[in-house]
Design brief:
The complex is a heterodimer of chains A (413) and B (343).
Chain A lengths: L2 H27 L3 H30 L3 H4 L33 H8 L9 H14 L5 H20 L20 H13 L7 H32 L5 H13 L2 H14 L13 H5 L6 H12 L4 H8 L4 H12 L1 H17 L2 H6 L8 H11 L4 H21 L1 H12 L2
Chain B lengths: L1 H44 L18 H8 L1 H32 L6 H13 L2 H11 L6 H13 L15 H12 L14 H4 L3 H28 L2 H9 L4 H29 L3 H6 L12 H10 L4 H25 L8
The chains are: A mainly alpha (413), B mainly alpha (343).
Chain lengths: 413, 343
């Protein structure tokens, strides 16, 4: 019985005890509320596991090595593959780089008698690599091979086998492979040596564009929302309906014309290079219809008496907006900032269209290309995904209150 | 009187000017990058604009692009894929999130923790989520197949390992095949084949993506449902309890009607969002998926516009998408909006 099964049984037993206790108490007090709550906890607990498990799987895989990440039977712990201390290889020429697709030859060799233990490790490596690379095998075929071929491989490993990773002398051990993160971070540079971008660059581009967009969106939305909420002018309703109508147009309709407009701009018009540069990523998103709408609703809730009082104190409109309105509407402003930032940070299609050079990839585009280039290296992919997810998750935990408030606000009004 | 009137005008003018100055920054951006392109897009959709063409080569073709779209088999396939995605993912997400929200509004301890756990997938980015789930659905060593294997071993359900993201067969068809085999109506390798896309359901590849999107979006809908549930006056429940109404009656006759504005809002938001989906398809099943069963409208638009560079045709597709979304919003407002209970 494995340790996992044992833990599971113990947990289930404790759970059963809990049920019995709650039920007994319920019978004594003639109240079934606690029993209902226990059931609710179980439903929620099961659902929570389903929600969190993929995250655990992502982080765990990011700490495995290639072999344990691509095992037909998944390993639950974030560890590398186990290999023992090396006896020196009997024949140095046997330690050759594995040839993918050499399954049958390798299998024949290692399925032989135990005498083949000296050449075993290389053969083992070949089999595993061969199996994994043979992506067109079905699950059951792999399973069949697993019983026939991989079983002796495991035995060989246990007989203190010697392992060299692709001919180099790095010895993998059964511990979390933190270096995956370094490897994933620097991996994009390997593809093109003349222009070595890494995740540092992706983060920089994403950070700059997101911050600029957020700042711009805040300024334009606050000004416009203030005008719509508190000023009386000719054509106010008409303009506001126009803004609302803009909200109906899906962003996908704008992709092509915006791209055409930007590509028709000659280089250095308005003193800027547009396509494949920051302006193309930032400028079209400097205004937010949703932001104007939300802030207007919030501003309208602020009583006009404050404006009268400010006028008596000699404040102008701008000063009133800056010193009275904004501090009062901090939650709404922070919510808008959050949404603007995340919208830009998470956008994929627009950056994909307007940027071509690796230099100008945002994090999302970088991650997408990384996924294409690295397919198969699940441990590195998961490390990169973790890297990309982490800042947003941290942001969420820091500003959780505003997230919830903001979402509820989008839900009503 | 006339003097007051004349002194009024310049001030009005000044006031208008000030307001327009406040509106100008947002207005210019919206005009240049939203309104003008929306109009320009109509023009592009009436031309045969091709990626690298000089402006002189661009020809007016009238409605040809739209006519082409309605003759294009691929267009209808992507449209059907998108509709499939919408009609499966939206109800699943809404039902799941409503059940979780109902559980979370019981006054129980540790609610904040559960809420955070459910909401966490929503803050993670679609790109990372897609990479993660394509690893989970990997057919040789993914977690999904491991889970199925575990179930099969202990419960003998007869659901073998599946091909998930590489499976073009429809889920309804597969479920029917499985039922047939369990009931002994079909022999070992016989399969049900409806031979009609309406009955097949989304392909298993699409269904995998639907599972992913349900996993990601449940938290968002749950949060808004919770906010809606908290708005309901507790005195209704107290009165109903005194009258002897059970939990189901209370849910059916108090919660559901009073929650209907929120549900309706979420339905519209979810459907519009689902019609615009493309990131998971792009990353989990590159190139349209098995037999093109996961290519959606926006993905098709991207392929046509920015890979084949048929910008005119792509603009036409974008407009069809726009019209669909608009029509759906209006239709929902008319059909369901009348039945929604507002306090």
């Amino acid at each position: 019985m494995s340790i996992c099964t044992l833990t599971l049984l113990v947990v289930l037993f404790l759970d059963l005890l809990c049920w019995v206790w709650v039920a007994a108490r319920g019978i004594r007090r003639r109240s079934w509320k606690a029993l209902g709550h226990t059931a609710a906890y179980h439903g929620l607990g099961a659902a929570t596991i389903m929600m969190v498990l993929p995250f655990y799987w992502m982080v765990a895989t990011s700490l495995k090595d290639f072999e344990s990440a691509n095992r037909p039977v998944p390993t639950w712990l974030p560890l590398g593959t186990k290999y023992f201390a090396p006896p020196p290889p009997a024949k140095p020429e046997e330690v050759s780089t594995p040839r993918p697709g050499a399954i049958s030859a390798a299998a024949n060799r290692s399925a032989g008698p135990r005498g083949s233990a000296a050449q075993g490790p290389t053969a083992a490596r070949e089999i595993e690599v061969g199996l994994i690379r043979a992506g067109n095998l079905t699950w059951s075929e792999i399973r069949r091979k697993d019983s026939v071929v991989v079983a002796p491989v495991k035995r060989l490993q246990d007989q203190s086998a010697y392992y060299t990773a692709k001919g180099s002398d790095i010895r993998r051990e059964r511990r979390p492979q933190w270096r995956n993160y370094v490897e994933a971070w620097n991996a994009p540079a390997k593809g093109n040596p003349e222009n070595p971008v890494t995740f540092t660059r992706y983060f920089w581009v994403s950070g700059v564009t997101s911050l600029l967009t957020t700042l711009g969106t805040l300024i334009t939305s606050i000004l416009a929302a203030y005008a719509f909420a508190k000023m009386r002018f000719r054509g106010r309703n008409l303009l506001f309906y126009l803004v609302l109508a803009t909200m109906m147009v899906p962003g996908q309709v704008l992709l092509i014309p915006n791209f055409l407009i930007l590509s028709a701009l000659p280089d250095y018009s308005f003193g800027l290079r547009w396509l494949d540069n920051y302006p193309a990523l930032v400028v079209p998103w400097l205004a937010s219809v949703f932001g104007i709408f939300m802030l207007r609703q919030f501003f309208r809730g602020i009583p006009d008496e404050l404006w009268d009082a400010a006028q008596i104190d000699g404040a102008g409109r701008f000063r009133y907006l800056w010193q009275v309105m904004l501090p009062l509407s901090k939650p709404a402003v922070i919510t808008l900032a959050l949404f603007a930032f995340l919208g830009e940070w998470n956008s994929l299609l627009w950056p994909l269209i307007v940027t071509t050079s690796p230099d100008m990839r945002t994090l999302m585009v970088g991650l997408q290309t990384f996924n294409e280039e690295m397919s198969g290296n699940s441990h590195l992919l998961m490390a990169a995904a973790t890297i990309a997810v982490l800042p947003v998750v941290l942001l969420f935990f820091a500003l959780q209150r505003f997230f919830v408030a903001g979402l509820s606000r989008t839900g009503f009004k | 009187m006339s003097r007051i009137g004349s002194s009024h005008k310049p001030r009005n003018f000044k006031r208008n000017l000030e307001a327009y100055a406040y509106l100008a920054p947002a207005g210019i951006i919206l005009l240049v990058f939203w309104c003008a392109p929306a109009v320009f897009s109509v023009f592009v959709s009436f031309t045969n604009w091709h990626g690298g063409d000089a402006l002189a080569d661009v020809k007016w073709v009238g409605l040809e692009n739209y006519r082409m779209a309605f003759r294009d088999q691929r267009f209808f396939k992507t449209l059907w894929n998108t509709v499939n995605y919408v009609i499966w993912s939206v109800p699943l997400t809404l039902i799941l999130s409503l059940s979780v929200a109902l559980l979370l509004t019981l006054k129980i301890r540790g609610m904040a923790l559960f809420r955070t756990a459910f909401f966490l997938p929503y803050v993670t980015t679609w790109v990372a989520v897609s990479i993660l789930w394509s690893y989970i659905f990997q057919q040789n060593f993914g977690l999904a197949n491991c889970f199925l294997e575990f179930l099969d071993k202990h419960l003998h359900l007869g659901v073998g390992p599946l091909k998930w993201l590489n499976e073009p067969r429809g889920v309804i068809e597969m479920a029917a095949t499985w039922m047939g085999q369990r009931l002994g109506l079909l022999s070992g390798d016989q399969i049900v084949d409806f031979k009609h896309p309406l009955l097949e359901g989304p392909s298993l590849a699409m269904f995998s993506i639907i599972i992913t999107s349900v996993w990601r979006d449940t938290g968002y809908f749950m949060l808004i449902f919770i906010a809606g549930l908290n708005e309901i006056d507790p005195t209704y429940y107290e009165a109903a309890e005194i009258d002897g109404a059970g939990p189901w009656t209370r849910f059916r006759h108090i919660t559901l009607p009073l929650l209907s504005p929120v549900t309706f809002f979420l339905l519209v938001v979810a459907m519009i969002g689902a019609f615009k989906v493309y990131v998971p398809m792009m990353i989990m099943t590159p190139g349209g998926g098995p037999s093109g069963t996961t290519s959606t409208l926006v993905y098709f638009l991207y392929e046509e516009g920015f890979m084949s560079w048929r910008l005119g045709y792509a603009s036409a597709i974008a407009y069809v998408l726009f019209v669909i979304i608009l029509a759906m919003t209006l239709l929902q407002n008319k059909v369901i909006g009348g039945k929604v209970h507002y306090e």
